[in-house]
Every structure is written in structure tokens, then in C-alpha cells.
Amino acid sequence: MTTPASSIALVLSGSVIGSVGAALLKSGAQFLGRGLSGLLLNWRLALGIVTYLVSSVFFVKGISKGELSILFPMVSLSYIGAMIWSRLFFHEQLTKPKLAGVALILIGIVFLGLSNG
Amino acid sequence: MISVASGEVRVSDPAKRRQAVFIVLACTLMVGAAQVLIKLGANRLGQAGLMQTLIGILTIPQLFAGYFLYGIFAVLLIYALRHGELSILYPLIALGYVWVSILSVLVFHETMNGLKIAGVAIIIAGVAVLGWGSRN
């Protein structure tokens, strides 16, 4: 069984879109607790939820064809994306424990992917 | 595009940040359960088209429960993100894979091979390191 390029493209773009969705949710969440308008007129939150849904459709479509052992680890690209957005837009520090923790998670996901091969 | 209002850097208090970490950790169990429920429901769906799938989400109890849990997860995640750091909370969601692996053995009687056990253990270690790093 080979993995079509379209599946790889879907999963990779789904990952990037998902991480952008998470950043939008975070940026929208900051406006909550400021009355009803903070919830209902919160375009960041709305866009974040839509983006998240779109990314899950990409994943489901992408994973339906091809080898899980190759596609599954690619999902973890979203964690790297989230780290980059955290640093750029929310000025969060990328400390050593954070980088080490994410690195371990990525390795663990690669193992899980391989176990499905 | 995405910018924090007036570029302020919010430093929320440590107790709230810790609470955010625990909320997301609890949420991952919900995600694991949701995925198993959706898988159970999808088995009953068979080769359904888009419309039948949408109707199925509303009428098949397992699918409905699965997506309902996902909805609760989204609300709690947004709440947690208010006070917690994205760079900590987002990778923590990977713990969901661990729950799915464990639940798959319990519910679908899938076998755990060496690679899977290693993957689960390494992810747990990564989550622990992240949680430990979020103390300060």
C-alpha cells in the first residue's frame, strides 16, 4: 500500500490549519468575560471554531487513504505550528521543558504511527 | 491577523494557569471517549452518504454522544486558553492518543504491541515534562 501525495497534502495542510485554529481560539478567548458581545460578536472565536472543523475534515479525508504509519506522525506538525504561533502572537516563552515535552510527544506519536504500519 | 489587543502580554496568575492545565488534561479523556464513541457509531453507519451521516449524528446515540463530548471539549478548551499558555495546552491534547490506545484495547479488544506501548509511554513522559514545565 502506498500513500498518495493528495493524502499527505491533506494531512499536512490540516495540521497547519488546525494550529491556526487553536491560535484563533486563544486570541478570541481573551475577549470572553466582557459581556455578551465578547461571546456573540467574537469573530476570532467563530473563525477559530470553523477553522478547527475544517482541519478535522482535512484529517478524516486525508487519513481515509494511505498508510497510517506515514500520515499519523504528520498530524503532529500542528504542535510545532502551535509553538510558533504562541511565540509570535502571544509572546510565550519557549522554555526547555516545553521544547523537550513537545519533542517527546512527537517521538511518541511517530511510534504510535509505526505501530499501525 | 491574529494579534493580542494592543499587544499586551498577559501574565495570568499561576493558580489559574495550573487550573487550565488540569482542565485540558481532563478534556483529553473526553476526546478519547468521543473518538471511541464515534468509531462505534460509524460502524453502524456503514456506507452512508453525507446527508445520511449528518442524520446519523443526530439519531445514532453513540455518534450523538461522541460529537456532544467534542462540543463540551471545545468549550472547556476555550475556557482554559483564557488563562493558560497555548504552547503548553495545545500539545497536552496529545494525551488523547494515549486514552484512545487504552480504550481501543478495552472496547475493541485491539492488541497492544511493543511499538504502541513505547509510543504511549513516551507521550505520557512528554506530557509530564510539559506539565512540570508549566509550574512557573
What does this structure look like?
- The complex is a heterodimer of chains A (117) and B (136).
- Chain A has 117 residues and is mostly helical.
- Chain A has helices at residues 5-29, 37-40, 43-63, 68-74, 77-90, 96-115.
- The longest helix of chain A has 25 residues, at 5-29.
- The radius of gyration of chain A is 16 Å and the shape is flat.
- The termini of chain A are close together.
- Classes of the chains: A mainly alpha (117), B mainly alpha (136).
Short précis:
The complex is a heterodimer of chains A (117) and B (136). By secondary structure, chain A is mostly helical.
- What number is the mean pLDDT of chain B? 85
Shape of chain B: flat
Number of helices of chain B: 6
Report the mean per-residue pLDDT of chain A as an integer.
87
In angstroms, what separates the terminal alpha carbons of chain A? 10 Å
Secondary structure category of chain A: mainly alpha
General shape of chain A: flat
Question: Which features does this protein show?
Answer:
heterodimer, A: 117 residues, mainly alpha, 6 helices, 78% helix, flat, B: 136 residues, disordered N terminus
Question: Could you outline the blueprint of secondary structure elements for this entry?
Answer:
The complex is a heterodimer of chains A (117) and B (136).
Chain A: H1 5-29, H2 37-40, H3 43-63, H4 68-74, H5 77-90, H6 96-115
Helix pairs in contact in A: 1-3, 1-4, 1-5, 4-6
Chain B: H1 14-45, H2 50-59, H3 61-83, H4 86-92, H5 95-108, H6 114-133
